[in-house]
Design brief:
Helix content of chain A: 10-25%
Number of helices of chain A: 6
Oligomer: homodimer
Shape of chain A: elongated
Largest interface: A-B, 116 and 117 residues
Radius of gyration of chain A: 30 Å
Number of strands of chain A: 27
Number of domains of chain A: 4
Strand order of the largest sheet of chain A: 8-5-7-6-10-9
CATH architecture of the largest domain in chain A: 3-Layer(aba) Sandwich
CATH class of the largest domain in chain A: Alpha Beta
C-alpha cells in the first residue's frame, strides 16, 4: 500500500480543467414533446409574425367605430377558424368570438357585456373608440425576432412558442449517454442482506437520481467485476456506446483499486486527487475518442459532492447550456463554518427565511459517509481552504439546490 | 351570445377551493429508480444503524493506539467486504482499506501517508490517539431516526439513504394521470400550414411540458371533436382512465363553446370565472368519481398562468407533497406595476442580481396572447386588485419559476 502519487489539485482549478476538456454534444432534431430540458444549437428566429392576423381578444361584436351609438344589423359571425371574410358593411356588426379574425373594415371589438342584443341586431355604446379588444398582427411576436436564444433551457413557454411558429421539432444538442458503475468488493444489491463487512450499493441509486436530474440518459452497469480483465472489457464496451463513464468507489489508494490503472491504460488521467472536502480522491480522465470518465469516491457524500462540483457542470455543458452552474444566492451564515486545512469544503446547509434574508443552518455532522447531511439540504456553502473559515453572520454566495418555501 | 352567468370568484379563494376539492392519490410501491420526484406516504424510519460496523475512513493501518511509536508486525488486511475477523494481537497492525471493518481490538487507524512500511512490518508515529479515521457504528444514522419525512420530495440523497437501509422500493403517493385536450375549430396540428383564421395548436406542447415538470403522467388527446356527442364520449372515456382532465380553449362564452355545458352535465362546475388576469374564464369541475376537470382559457399565457395558479398546486397535492406551492423570495420591483381593475394580475418578470438583491424586470407587454412574456421569465409577481398597483422600489414576495445564475 502506497500513498497516492497524483498531485493534489486545487478544487476550482480542477473544475475548470474538467469543463475545458468536456465537449458540447452534436446537434440532433428532437420532437417538441422531448425538447423540455434541452438547449438549442442556434437562436430560434420567428419566421413569421404572431398573431398572423388581427384576432379578437374577447367574445363580442366587431364594428366600425364610427357606427357606435346606433342599432347595427348583425351581418354574420367570425368564429375562431371560421372567419367572416367579406368587408363589414357600414352600419353592420359581426359577432366575433375570442380568437376570431377581425373582419375587413371593422376597426374595434365591443365586448358582449357592453351591448344590447335583439333578433338580428345589436346596439353598441356611442363614442366607442377604435382599436379595442383585439390583437394586431405582430403584436405578440415580430417576424425576425429572437424567440429563444441558443443555450437557454427550453421550458413550457419556449416550446409553446416554437409550436405556434410551426416547428414540430427543434435542433438541440445531444443528451449525454452515461454509463454508471459501482465498484467495491463490499457491495451487495439493495434487497440482499449484507454479510459481515458488506454494505448495500446505495451510490448507484443516488447517482442515478442526480444524473437524471442533470439531464443524462443513464445505463446502469451494476457492480464492477473485481478482476482487471472483465473490468476492462466492460469499461471499453461501455465507452463505445456512451459519452461518459461514471464510477463510484475504487479510486482511493487501496491495493484492490482497479479503476485508476485501467483509466491510465485507456486514456489520460488528468486528475487523481483534488483539494476538496469531501471528495479528495476524485479522478477524471479523457479517452482518445474524446469520451470522459469520472471516478467518484465511494463515500456517499463524497460521490454526490464531486458529482455536483465536477460532473453536473460537464453534463450541462454537453447539453449545450450557456450556464453550466447551479444558481447562487446570498445567504447569511447561521453558524460558524471552520476551514478544512488545505481543502475547499462544500458544507451542506438547510435554508431558513428570516425576514427578507435566507439563513444557512448546518445539516449536522459533515462526515463524508453521513448522507443525512445532504438529505433535505437546500444549498452548499463553499468554505475556502486555510484561514479561519466563515463566521456566523457573514453573508456568502450559496449554491442553491432547492428553495425552502 | 350571452355574457357568462358564472359568478366572478376571487383568485385566492378559487385557488383554495381547487385545493380543497383535490384528493391525495393512493399509495403505491415504486422501485428506487422511479422514486425521485415522489413523496412518501409515511415517514421513513431507519430500521438499523449506519454504518452497521466500525468502518475505516481512509487507507492505512488499524492498530491499538497503545502500540504507537513502535515497529508493528502486519498481521493481515481488512479490505472492504473482506474483514479481518480475528482479534488484532497486541504489537500488530492490520492493513485497512477505506470502508474496511475495524478489526476487533484495534481502536484507531493511521493513514498510509503517516507510516513507514517494510516487508511485513510498519512503523507508526508515537502518541497516536485512539478513535481516529474511522466511522463508528451509528455515526451516520441511528436506528429509529426519521430519515425522510412523509410529503418531502425524494431526491438523490433520500433515495441513496433508502438504498443503504435496504429498501429496494418505497411506498409513495400515486402519480396523477392527466388527459390533455385542446379545443377550438381554429386549431391545426404543428407542422400543418394554417389556413385563413387558423392557428397552430401550441398550448398542447406548452401544457405537456408544464404537466411533466409538475410530475404528471400525460396522455395527449389531441384537438377535441367540435360536436357535442363525440366530445362527450371522449371526455367520459378519458375520465375513466385518468385522474385529471385538462382542456385548453373552449371556456369563454362563445356560442361554439362545448366544454362548460359538458362538464355541467357530467359533474359539478365549481368555478366558471375568476378575478384573475390573465385567465378570467378558468373553469374547474369535479366528477362524482372524485376526478377533476380543469378548463383552461385558450390564450397561451392565460393557459399557462391558470396552470400555475390552480393546476400545478393540485397536482403537487395529489402527489402527496407537504408543500404544494412554488417557492417565494423577496424581490425589489424594478418597474411600476399597475393594478388590473378588480382582478389579481400575475405579471411575468425576469430577475436580475443587483448586489445582494433580486430585482424584478418586466418581460414586456403582458398581453394574454403574448407568450414571449413568459419566455425566460424567472418569476411571477402577484399584483393585487384595486388600488394603485406596486411602485418601483417596493420589495414583494415573488413566485420563483427558476433562478438566474
Amino acid at each position: 500500500m502506497r500513498a497516492s502519487t497524483y498531485p493534489l489539485v486545487d478544487a476550482a482549478e480542477a473544475a475548470a480543467l474538467v469543463l475545458e476538456r468536456t465537449p458540447v454534444l452534436p446537434a440532433e432534431d428532437v420532437a417538441l414533446a422531448d425538447c423540455p430540458g434541452r438547449a438549442l444549437t442556434d437562436d430560434l428566429i420567428a419566421p413569421a409574425q404572431l398573431p398572423p392576423f388581427a384576432a379578437s381578444a374577447v367574445d363580442g361584436f366587431a364594428i366600425r367605430s364610427a357606427d357606435g351609438g346606433g342599432r347595427l344589423r348583425v351581418a354574420g359571425e367570425s368564429a375562431a377558424g371560421r372567419p367572416f371574410t367579406e368587408d363589414l358593411p357600414a352600419g353592420a356588426a359581426a359577432r366575433i368570438l375570442t380568437g376570431g379574425v377581425l373582419p375587413p373594415g371593422a376597426d374595434t371589438v365591443v365586448m358582449v357585456e357592453e351591448v344590447e342584443q335583439g333578433d338580428g341586431w345589436v346596439t353598441v355604446p356611442g363614442g366607442f373608440p377604435a382599436g379595442r379588444n383585439f390583437h394586431r398582427p405582430g403584436d405578440d411576436l415580430r417576424q425576425g425576432e429572437v424567440v429563444v436564444a441558443r443555450g437557454e433551457p427550453l421550458g413550457p413557454a419556449e416550446v409553446g412558442l416554437a409550436a405556434a411558429l410551426g416547428f414540430p421539432q427543434l435542433r438541440v444538442h445531444g443528451r449525454p449517454r452515461v454509463a454508471l458503475m459501482s465498484t467495491g468488493d463490499e457491495l451487495v444489491e439493495v434487497g440482499q442482506r449484507p454479510g459481515p463487512g458488506q454494505i448495500v450499493d446505495s451510490n448507484r441509486w443516488a447517482l442515478l437520481a442526480a444524473l437524471a436530474e442533470a439531464g443524462a440518459a443513464v445505463t446502469l452497469l451494476g457492480v464492477a467485476p473485481d478482476r482487471p480483465e472483465p473490468l476492462r472489457e466492460l469499461v471499453v464496451d461501455a465507452l463505445r456506446h456512451h459519452d461518459v463513464l461514471v464510477t463510484s468507489g475504487g479510486v482511493s489508494v487501496g491495493t484492490h483499486d482497479l479503476v485508476k490503472p485501467l483509466l491510465e491504460s485507456l486514456g489520460e488521467v488528468h486528475l487523481g486527487r483534488v483539494r476538496l472536502k469531501p471528495g479528495k480522491p476524485f479522478t477524471f480522465a479523457t479517452l482518445p475518442s474524446g469520451r470522459l470518465a469520472f471516478g467518484l469516491p465511494g463515500f456517499p457524500v463524497s460521490s454526490l459532492i464531486t458529482f455536483e462540483v465536477f460532473v453536473r457542470p460537464a453534463l450541462r455543458k454537453m447539453l449545450g447550456f450557456a450556464r453550466t452552474q447551479r444558481p447562487a444566492l446570498p445567504v447569511r451564515m447561521g453558524y460558524d463554518a471552520s476551514a478544512a486545512g488545505d481543502r475547499t469544503e462544500y458544507q451542506r446547509v438547510a435554508l431558513r427565511r428570516e425576514g427578507g434574508e435566507l439563513v444557512a443552518v448546518s445539516t449536522g455532522s459533515q462526515s463524508s459517509s453521513r448522507l443525512m447531511s445532504l438529505a433535505g439540504a437546500h444549498a452548499l456553502v463553499k468554505v475556502p481552504p486555510g484561514g479561519t473559515g466563515i463566521a456566523a453572520g457573514t453573508v456568502v454566495e450559496a449554491i442553491i439546490l432547492s428553495l425552502p418555501i
